[in-house]
From TrEMBL:
GO terms for cellular component: membrane. Residues 1-23 are annotated as: Disordered. This is O-fucosyltransferase family protein. It comes from Nelumbo nucifera (Sacred lotus). It is a single-pass membrane protein. The chain crosses the membrane at residues 89-111. PANTHER family: O-FUCOSYLTRANSFERASE 2-RELATED, O-FUCOSYLTRANSFERASE 8. Belongs to the glycosyltransferase GT106 family. It is found in: Membrane. GO terms for molecular function: glycosyltransferase activity. Pfam families: O-FucT (PF10250).
Length: 628
């Protein structure tokens, strides 16, 4: 499976004939609308049976017509002999034949309708079960908020499809990005090395999913170095939300992690036996999020945690999400966090191997393209190929999209997404069930209208809005789009506007067989690692929510290892809401221009600002080195 030297896996048929996400029927209808009635476009492979049935029925009608025509000739030849005697019989015969003809036509219509219905039923999307929320039981029609802009986008994409692809779309717009190189693995000039005597042991039980756990690990490394403590390999708390029992060694290479960081911090796999039986809460060594403020400064850990270490020899951080702030922090600790995130946390071979299969099949190519590939996939991706090799092998580009439109996020936002009263009641019921504190807070605070929330940029982008953004940027209808995650609220009704513009939407399930995915099937964090790999190594990465930790980690990886050749599309939700509010009047050229300016501003090369995430914006002296 994906080992070096293995035959290249063919591109799965889904890329050509079965667009992912279970939207095939909607895509074909849209294609017909875009390209008119030209019979050379939009043909369905599944339409063969229907055409054959129709031809058979039409031939049957022609045979009936011949029989009817023969009868008419016979009647004409003998009409002089029996016209007067049998006039009533003749009227009856004509009436009978007319009835038979009408009955035949009626039967044809019924059979035709049944064929269409059966054909539609056979094309019912299978992938929809992966993206439709169980909370929504009834089947809904498409939910559309910007019908006029969708029509303009559809026309623009149809016109653009037969033109050459713009190279600028797939490149970083600012050359200064290539001047920054990774160097967090190099020791800083002022670092004196770790002290020989440890102050005690630090345990961390990290909560959340893959992204939150990763942040917690690297923050724990920095805190252990700050307090001159020995770090025990972090544990991951089991959550009913994630339903994943994975631990550190199931996702990351333990020995590699410990060895790479050994010069900065002591790391062990387990506590010494004499400390394992301690009741940490009873001795005061259990530290929860309530004990340490969010984005705490180093001095907070020195004052609160260090005395406990010296007294008890051990502390246990329970949760430990964003407990360590980004500034102010000593240079060597900031660099250590970068080294942890971008160098020390390597996925286990199992994830690297399956991830390499996924990337190879999306690209139709076996070779690595950048340092991103080598860092994330290790030896499971071959070395950089000779120049010009990509073109000769037909390697294809793809855009990866992280679409944050899950049920919990949609409900928590308290925004209106155009689904009417049914949707409002549904989301309110979900809030009352899952976010009772939010409901209580909303009752006791000043009411903010959904319209105002949208203007403030507080609403997650819908799939429809994401599609309009991509079309305004100039991505062609035929662009292959990898979708990270699949729990899109509203399922088919929400995705219809997106897939009507971009039918080549795929997920990891389209490229990997059930047996290939089986080792990761019941482990959400390990499956999320595949999405991280596919997004980080994509030619272009687009997000719909810049505040997402997943998007932040992916975009940070692309900045750190991309060499200025890994563009990221990061919308400003407040600005795009203002642009979309003019749906009824704005012309397509003006819409394109404003969206492109918004994205271009987000792609400008900036040094990390004070207090900004080192994981999302590693372009700073602590993490990267600037060349010429």
């Amino acid at each position: 499976m994906g080992k070096k030297g293995s035959p290249r896996s063919p591109r799965p048929p889904s890329m050509h004939v079965k667009p992912s996400f279970g939207m095939k029927n909607h895509q074909d209808k849209c294609l017909e609308n875009l390209l008119g009635s030209d019979p050379s476009f939009g043909r369905r492979a599944s339409g063969g049976d229907h055409s054959w049935n129709k031809d058979m029925l039409l031939n049957g009608l022609k045979d009936d017509d011949k029989r009817i025509g023969g009868s008419v000739v016979t009647f004409s030849g003998k009409r002089q002999m029996w016209l007067g005697k049998h006039s009533r019989l003749m009227v009856f015969a004509f009436g009978l034949m007319g009835s038979l003809f009408l009955l035949d036509s009626l039967m044809f219509s019924i059979i035709h309708s049944i064929n269409l219905k059966n054909s539609s039923h056979q094309r019912e999307p299978n992938g929809l079960k992966d993206v439709q929320m169980d909370y929504v039981h009834e089947k809904k029609g498409p939910t559309i908020m910007y019908d006029r802009l969708l029509n303009l986008a559809s026309s623009a994409l149809a016109e653009k499809e037969f033109r050459g692809d713009s190279v600028k779309l797939w490149e970083e717009p600012h050359k200064q990005a290539s001047q920054w190189k990774p160097c967090a693995d190099k020791t800083g000039p002022l670092y004196q090395g770790k002290l020989t005597k440890s102050s005690g042991f630090i345990l961390v039980s990290a909560n959340g999913g893959l992204n939150q756990q990763r942040v917690a690990i690297c923050n724990a490394v920095a805190v252990a170095s700050l307090l001159n403590a020995t770090l025990v390999l972090p544990k991951f708390l089991y959550s009913n939300v994630w339903n994943d029992p994975s631990q550190f060694g199931d996702i990351y290479q333990e020995e590699y992690f410990m060895d790479l960081l050994k010069d900065e911090v002591n790391i062990v796999k387990e506590l010494p036996p004499h400390l394992q039986s301690l009741d940490f809460e009873a001795i005061g060594s259990l530290i929860t999020d309530a004990d340490i403020v969010k984005e705490a400064k180093p001095i907070d850990f020195v004052k609160i945690v260090y005395p406990l270490l010296l007294r008890n020899g051990v502390v246990h951080f329970l949760g430990f999400g964003n407990r360590l702030g980004f500034d102010p922090l000593p240079f060597h600790l900031q660099r250590l966090r970068c080294k942890c995130n971008f160098h020390a946390l390597k996925f286990v071979p199992k994830i690297q191997e399956i991830g390499s299969l996924l990337v190879k099949r999306i690209r139709k190519h076996d070779g690595a393209r950048s340092l991103l590939d080598k860092q994330l996939l290790g030896n499971y991706i071959s070395d950089l190929p000779p120049e010009g090799h990509y073109a000769s092998t037909g390697s294809s580009k793809y855009l990866a999209l992280h679409m944050r439109f899950e049920m919990d996020m949609v409900a928590y936002s308290v925004c209106d997404f155009g689904g009417g009263e049914t949707e409002k009641k549904e989301l309110q019921a979900y809030r009352e069930s899952h976010f009772p504190l939010l409901v209580e807070r909303l009752k006791n605070s000043r009411s903010v209208s959904p319209e105002e929330l949208r203007k403030l940029g507080k609403c997650p982008l819908t799939p429809e809005e994401a599609a309009l953004m991509l079309s305004a940027l100039g991505f062609k209808r035929s662009t292959y789009i990898y979708l990270a995650g699949s729990n899109i609220y509203g399922g088919q009704s929400r995705m219809h506007p997106f897939t009507s513009l971009y039918p080549n939407l795929v997920t990891k399930e389209d490229f990997l067989t059930p047996s290939e995915l089986a080792p990761l099937r019941n482990f959400s964090s390990q499956l999320a690692a595949l999405d991280l790999i596919a997004c980080a190594t994509a030619d272009v990465f687009a997000m719909t929510d810049s505040g997402s930790q997943f998007s932040s980690l992916v975009s940070g990886y692309r900045v750190y290892y991309g060499g200025g050749h890994a563009p990221t599309v990061r919308p400003n939700k407040k600005r795009i809401a203002a642009i979309l509010s003019e749906n009824g009047t704005i012309e397509w050229a003006a819409f394109q221009d404003r969206v492109r300016k918004m994205i271009d501003e987000g792609q400008r090369v900036r040094i990390r600002g004070f207090g900004r995430s080192i994981y999302r914006q590693p372009r700073c002296p602590e993490c990267m080195c600037k060349g010429h």
